[in-house]
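User: Please predict structures.

Assistant: First:
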Amino acid sequence: MAIVTKTDWTITKSADWLTVNSISGNNTETVRVSAGKNPTSEPRSAILTVKGGTAPAQIVTVTQLAGTVVPEVKTLTADVSLIAFEAKGETKSIGITSNTTWSITGKPEWCLLSESSGSGSRDITVTANENTRTEDRSGQIVIEGDGVSKVVIDVTQKAKELQEPGPDDNTPPA
């Protein structure tokens, strides 16, 4: 921008996203005006006011086109795909990594969770109750989030071991 004058002059700007290499001077000068990247999907405008001597202020409107906004890619992952529990029952951890809200929409009835929903990344604990049955059991923990694919974690638990009668067992023979 060229400022043509024979007197002292000043420039004020209405927006911080504009940079002016010289905001004051005297006589004729070329001033460089630059704009920072527009982070929005809308055009924006700012005003430069040039004042010099007794002349009326000159208003320069600077308009910047809309920026290219790249939407954030939402993610939801778990640090395990399988959890295997012993028959006696135990507690294990799932590390959830996410940048969106999520909830656990499915789990085996024999599992307890430290929490069933949240946002962002966190560790949750899964506690399996003792398996008193004589067969293994299995199920799935399903985690779903806003705008992401669901995460499915397979869960298994060993069966209770049958005890063979010992020599001190007082059970009469069949």
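Second:
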Amino acid sequence: MQSIEKQTSFSEMVMAIQGQAFTTGQKIAGYFGKRHDDVLRKFVKHSEIA
């Protein structure tokens, strides 16, 4: 398993909009050191399964 060494605060990763927690694919990609298009591809694949 990959180790995450970055110290990112929760408030940098997640924002609240009308009481709901949200983040962006770009923030997720940056946090995990992945390409944004790869993260989006996973989102789409997962949404097709769910």
